[in-house]
Amino acid sequence: MLFNSLQFAVFFIIVYSLYLVLNHKWQNRMLLTASCVFYGAWDWRFLLLMFVSITTDYFCALKIQESVEEKTRKRFLFLSIFINLAILGFFKYFNFFAVSMDNLFSHFGFSIQPHLLHIILPVGISFYTFQALSYTIDVYRKELEPTRNFRDYALFVTYFPQLVAGPIMRARDLLPQVLSARKLSLKQFYEGCYLIFWGLFQKIFIADNLAKIVDSVFNSSGPYNAAKVLIALYAFAFQIYCDFAGYSNIARGMGKCMGFDIMINFNLPYFAVNPSDFWRRWHISLSTWLRDYLYIPLGGNKKGGFLTYRNLAITMLLGGLWHGAAWTFVIWGAYHGMLLIIHRLLKPVLAKIPSPKNATIGKAWFFLRVVFFFQLTCVGWLIFRAKSIGQILNMLGSFVSNFNVGLDMGFFSLIRLIWLLILVQIAQFIKNDQMVVYKSNILLKAVFYIIFFYSIVMYGASGGKEFIYFQF
C-alpha cells in the first residue's frame, strides 16, 4: 500500500479509529497486526522473511543479555549480524556480485555463466535490516535492555509508518515509546495532520510532476543536450528530496497522530555549505547509523589522517552500496567520500579565511557557498540517477561537446513546481523551525493550505506512484 493512494487512506482511517478506542496493550497488538497487513499487501512471503530476522534478533538479544562470557556474547551478536546481512545480501546483492564476477573473469577469457535469481527485492529490506541490527548491537554494547515481549519488539521493527522507507529508528528511541502508554493530544494531532498534508504536497504535486522532466532525459539513450541535462539534473535534485522527505513527513505525521515521536530525517539539506554539513542534513537516520555503527568502530578520526580518510572512504562506499546493487551507487558513494576527504584536507586553509564583518556581505558569501555546494551535490545526483556508467560519461561529455544555451519548457515547469517549496524552506531556515508554516498566523496558514490542497487536487500526479526509496 502506498501512502499516496486511496487504499492506504481507508486503511489508516480504520487503524486510527481502532487505535483511539483501545488501551495501550491492545493498541500495540492492533498496530502489529495492521503493520503485518500493510507489509503483506506487497507480498506475504516477504512478511515471513522479515519475521525470520525479527525472531533471530529477539532471541539473540536475550542471549547476549543473559550471557556472562564475552565469547558467548560475541557469538550471538555475530549470529544476529550474519543472518541479517546474509538475508540482505542474498536478496539484494547476489545478482550484482554474480554478474560483476562474470564480467571480471570475462576480461581474462573465462566465463563462469552465473545462475541469476529471478526474485523481487523485498520492499524496505535495507531499512528494517539496519533498524533491527541497531537493537542487537546496542544490547551488546550494554546501551539498551532487551525486551522480553516478542510482540512489542516485533512492533518496533514493523511499525508501518516508517517500515519501508524510514527513518531508520534506533531501538533506544522507538522501543520505549512502544513499551509505554502514549499520550494523545489535539496539538500533536494537528501537527501530525500538517506534516501529512505537507508530505503529500511534496510527493504528489512536486516530486511526481518533476519525474516527467527527469524521465524524459534520463530514459533516453542520447545524444544529450547539456542544457536539458542540467534542467533534468536540477529537477531530480528536488524530485528525490521531495519524494523521500515527503515520505518521512507523512511517517512523522502519522506517528504524531498516534503519540509517537519519529525523528526528523531531513533538515534543509540544500542549505548545506560543505559535504559534512550535507550529511548532517540529508537522510539523517542513515548517516548517523553509518557514523555510529561503521565509521566510529573503524576508528573514526582518532587514529591519524590516513586512517581517517580510509574510514571515510569505506563508510561512504558502503553507504552508496546500501542504496542499490549497481556500480553507479558505488561510484556515488565514492564521490561523496572524496568530497568529505577533500573538505577535511582543506579545513586548515578554509579556517584561515576571515568571516565577512559586514552582515550583507556575510549573507552573500553564505549564499555563494550554498549555491556552489548545491552544484557539487547535483553532480552526485547525476551519478545516482544514471542507468549506467556509460550514461554518466555521455551526459558529462555533453557539457563539453553539446552545450546549446536556451530556455526549455522544462525550465518553466521546474520553477512552477518548486517556487513554493523554496519560499517555505527559506522561512524554515531563517526561523530554524520546520514547523514555521504550521506556527504562522491563521490567515497565512489558510493561504498555504488552500494552495497545497488546490495544487494536489488540480495538478497532482495521479495513479499513486511509488516512492523512489522503496527500491532500496
What are the SSEs and their pairings?
Layout: H1 6-21, H2 24-40, H3 44-66, H4 70-106, H5 125-140, H6 150-158, H7 171-179, H8 186-218, H9 226-257, H10 275-279, H11 284-298, H12 305-323, H13 327-351, H14 359-385, H15 389-401, H16 409-431, H17 442-459
Helix pairs in contact: 1-2, 2-6, 3-4, 3-5, 3-6, 4-5, 6-7, 8-9, 8-16, 8-17, 9-14, 9-16, 11-12, 12-13, 13-14
Global morphology: globular
- In the residues, how many domains can be counted? 2
* Low-pLDDT regions: none
Secondary structure: helix percent: over 70%
Q: In total, how many beta strands?
A: 0
Helix and strand content put the structural class at mainly alpha
Which series of helices and strands comes N to C? HHHHHHHHHHHHHHHHH
Beta-strand residue percentage = under 5%
Rg, alpha carbons: 23 Å
Largest sheet: none
* Average pLDDT over all residues: 91
Distance between the termini: 16 Å
Number of helices: 17
